[in-house]
Amino acid sequence: MSKKYQVFVSSTYVDLVDERQQIIKACLEMGHIPVGMEMFSAADEEQWKIIQRQIDEIDYYVILIAHRYGSTTSEGISYTEKEYDYATSIGIPVLGFVIDDSAAWPANKVDADENDKIALISFKEKVKSKLVNFWSNKDELHAKFSIALMKATVNNPRSGWVKSEESIGTDIMKELSRLSSENATLRNENEAYKAKKLNNEDKSKKVIKVLEKNKKKLSIWLEGGSSWDDHDPIDVSLLDIFQSIAPNLLNENHNKEIASDIALYLNNGVNYRREWPVPSNYVSHWITDLHALGLLEPSKRKHPVSDTKDYWTLTKEGRDTIGSIRKLRLMAGVVEKETKPEDA
Asked: How far apart are CA 3 and CA 166, in angstroms?
């Protein structure tokens, strides 16, 4: 019985036109039915509903990634990642193809924006948590896709499409459907641990975006200064503030030292006074914001009764979030801001 499979090919658009065509060509050569993103306008919410229905009907989902994250939704996630997340959420088998980091690639097809780079690294890590193929050029991609699809149809067969005269009896079809359902259940159970880990990473990404969107004015009292007005306020985000104080909150820290950490990390080389270089009420408001986001909590460590300072520490979510930030910055090659030893 000749069976045809429907294959959805997803990628960023302009930078991977030729590579996507190679996959579609290979799919047609094997006698299957490719569904390309060229059919849709992903930025249109109505079109997204059509894409969802199309993914519901496919047999296999192909994700192709190079060096661009792609246009994003109102939630800040790329449409390519949104398609991937939906396909995996409904149990569609995924064939992943990620470009080899050592492969030659045009500079004008590489993300320059730091946030896009970090988002792309995170997305690649998500895709690579499952079995993927690495490719260097479109010809290699053609061959690797053909082999991967052939293996998928043997090791993970789907219902596919057959001519009506070749279709099998109802009872056998029901049994195959039952076995397929059991197989899907076992696969889902096998993916449970990975899914939980990825869910934590996605949660951290959402918190990071909230921190990044909240802009603040930072006033610093200069060393030898007479008022806050001696120095123009600095534009920072709550993300900048969180990154500046989180390392010393892995254990615990109190408000006055937190103010010093903020000034040390964000003063752009300006010397500041050691006692409350940042207004205490500003620090209290920012700590309250971070506490509301579930990143900080009052420290439970015991202190002498005479010690009346307010101590704070990172929550589990706070540790996960700063861990994700540091990991993504390292993987994206973003240079970490350092301070001179004498400033510490």
From this structure: 9
Q: Report angle CA 25, 30, 32 to the nearest 5 degrees.
A: 85
Q: How many CB atoms lie within 10 A of CB 27?
A: 23
pLDDT category of residue 189 using cuts at 50, 70 and 90 = confident
- pLDDT range class, residue 193, cuts 50, 70, 90: low
User: Helix, strand or coil for residue 60?
Assistant: strand
Architecture of domain 207-343: Orthogonal Bundle (1.10)
Please, what is the average pLDDT of the chain? 87
**Pairing state of beta strands 132-135 and 6-11?**
unpaired
Both tokens assigned to 184: 């899907």
Residues of the chain with CATH 3.40.50.10140: 6-163
Residue 27: pLDDT band (50, 70, 90) is very high
- Decide: 172 and 13 in contact? Cβ < 8 Å: no
CA–CA gap between residue 270 and residue 224 (Å, rounded):
12
Tell whether the model's pLDDT for residue 340 goes beyond 70.
no
- DSSP of 169-180, one letter per residue? PHHHHHHHHHHH
Residue 282's CB is within 10 A of a number of other CB atoms, namely 17
Pairwise CA distance, residues 94 & 114, whole Å: 28
Token output for 155: 């090791």
How far is the C-alpha of 107 from the C-alpha of 112, rounded, in Å?
9
Q: What is the mean pLDDT of residues 29-36?
A: 90
Question: 6-163 is classed in which CATH architecture?
Answer: 3-Layer(aba) Sandwich (3.40)
The pLDDT of residue 343: 46
Cα 3 versus chain centre, distance:
36
Which residues of the chain does CATH 1.10.10.10 include?
Answer: 207-343
Chain centroid to CA 105: how far? 23
pLDDT at 199: 65
The Cα-based distances of 171 to 38, 157, 167, 174, 258 in angstroms read 39, 18, 12, 5, 69
